[in-house]
Amino acid sequence: MNALTIIFTVVQLLSCVFLIAVVLLQSGKSSGLSGAVSGNSAETFFSKGKSKSLDATLARMTKWVGIVFVVLTLVLSLVK
Question: 11, 69 in Cβ contact below 8 A?
Answer without folding.
Answer: no
